[in-house]
Specification:
By secondary structure, this protein is α/β, with parallel strands linked by helices. Helix content is 30%, strand content 15%. The chain has two domains: 65-225 and 304-475, Alkaline Phosphatase, subunit A (3-Layer(aba) Sandwich), CATH 3.40.720; 226-283. It is built from eleven helices and 19 strands. The N and C termini lie far apart (73 Å). Residues 1-45 have low confidence and may be disordered.
Length: 477
């Protein structure tokens, strides 16, 4: 009889290679132990996916905190004042109008909020943000961002992954893959769930074709931060024995299948989950924070969303102190839609700003006080902006042609206003940049060259920035 031709012999695994070899492998064992500690020799490949990896150049920061303002805040109501809008409020809009999401186009819509200059830099800030306004000398406000998409789901994928479709790795996953982790007890990429997962869902935080170890781990800022994090076994020894058996079975199967990513990631994640059982409950217990700190972050505030987002910001600071590489904070529920105000913008933007302003202001102050500011990059951004003309009578439609965001922290030139939109705040006309440029700049500040941070997939070297991306030089210190 002839053997079935469809069955191929498995390649020699690492375990079989060591088992069949006679002796002289003390150095191999030593290198494996060193790799587990993240001390891989130059040129060697570590089996620990969380091991710290070398950068392409000297990094400016070690951590990124992305304050994601889901829904698209209006640039002309936050960071880009346009007096002409106020002057022509209620009159027909005089510029050519691009196709909008809903085509319910009204008249020119002047901002219902007041702007004032703040700090030594005189950076204009809307009265929506009295707490953040105290820190404008630390911010670089970019007024000339653009997106390729005007619909939430595609724009969210584009913002998070650099491609407007589902299935690509998130920017946080790329950071974790490129740099590893400084903390062996927590994931390198954590998403704090404020209650509103953005359109596009959890795929906004996925690892795509990168190893599954690098996907975003979703934490809740209050209560049980992670599902099933509490210990349920009668003893730690019993749990360790079960974990050891599970690891042995998974390792044998991984070796048989030549180290399949799903199994390798499962082994690493089980070990990490065990360590998190000790760390996470302590992290989310704010009882040892001073009353002044809790008050500063707004943890006792009654306004809807303020305490929730304040807890996110305080937890973010504690996670940074633990060495977490990339954090994303998401919007809290405020009783109606997120920043996506197609109607009743005056109340909608006010409620959303009230929810996040105090926590962000306290977070920036706390980073500086604790010496963490220069090691951290903070980014405040939605997925696009909003139109300077009304949708209906008192809302704004989606606008990807020109919007604002700000960055602060290490490597950022504080007190800077960079780029410009036209006199109505509709389209970027000076120092125009897109999401690829934002991603390139974030990676650069982390010490990674976006053109060299690649992963071989489907026959090509894939990048977060695809074949695009240039640094936003005007905001770099």
């Amino acid at each position: 009889m002839f053997p079935c031709q469809r069955i191929q012999p498995s390649p020699l695994s690492r375990r079989d290679f060591l088992r069949q070899s006679a002796c002289g492998f003390g150095a191999v064992a030593l290198s494996a132990m060193l790799a587990d500690d993240g001390n891989t020799a130059p040129g060697a490949v570590s089996k620990n996916p969380f091991a710290v990896k070398p950068t392409h150049h000297a990094p400016k920061v070690k951590h990124v905190v992305y304050l994601y303002m889901d829904g698209g805040p209006s640039q002309v109501d936050t960071w880009d004042p346009k007096p002409l809008l106020t002057e022509r409020n209620g009159k027909p809009f005089s510029m050519k109008i691009e196709p909008t999401q809903f085509n319910n186009i009204g008249t020119t819509f002047g901002s219902p909020y007041k702007f004032a200059q703040h700090g030594e830099s005189g950076t204009p800030c809307s009265d929506l943000f009295p707490h953040v306004a105290k820190h404008v000398d630390d911010l670089a406000v970019i007024r000339s961002m653009t997106s390729n998409f005007s619909e939430h789901t595609n724009a969210n994928y584009f913002l998070h992954t650099g491609v407007g479709i589902q299935g690509r790795p998130s920017m946080g996953a790329w950071a974790a893959y490129g740099l590893g982790s400084e903390c062996q007890d927590l994931p390198a990429f954590i998403v704090l769930n404020g209650g509103l997962i953005p359109p596009g869902g959890l795929d906004c935080f996925n690892s795509g074709f990168l190893p599954a170890t690098y996907q975003g781990s979703v934490f809740n800022p209050s209560g049980a931060a992670v599902a099933y994090v509490d210990r349920t076994e009668a003893s730690d020894k019993l749990q360790r024995n079960k974990l050891a058996l599970l690891k042995k079975l998974d390792r044998a199967e991984a070796d048989r299948l030549n180290n399949v990513d799903a199994l390798e990631s499962a082994i690493a994640n089980y070990e990490l989950a065990y360590r998190m059982q000790t760390v996470v409950p302590e992290l989310t217990d704010f009882s040892n924070e001073t009353e002044a700190t809790q008050k500063a972050y707004g943890l006792q505030e009654q306004s809807k969303g303020t305490a929730s987002f304040g807890r996110q910001c305080l937890l973010a600071r504690r996670l940074i102190e633990k060495g977490v590489r990339f954090l994303e904070l998401t919007c809290p529920a405020v009783g109606h839609d997120r920043w996506d105000q197609h109607g009743n913008l005056t109340k909608g933007h006010k409620d959303n700003a009230l929810a996040v302003d105090q926590g962000i202001g306290a977070f920036l102050a706390d980073l500086k006080e604790r010496g963490l500011f220069d090691d951290t990059l903070v980014v405040w951004s939605g997925e696009f902006g909003r139109t300077p003309f009304a949708q209906g009578s008192n809302g704004r439609d989606h606008n990807p042609w020109g919007f604002s965001l700000w960055m602060a922290g290490g490597g950022i030139k504080g007190g800077t206003v960079y780029g410009a939109t036209d006199e109505f705040g509709y389209k970027a006309i000076e120092n125009r940049h897109d999401i690829h440029d934002l991603h390139a700049t974030i990676l650069h500040l982390l010490g990674l060259d976006h053109e060299k941070t690649t992963f071989r997939f489907s026959g090509r070297d894939m990048r977060l920035t695809d074949v695009h991306g240039k640094l936003i030089q005007g905001i770099l210190a």
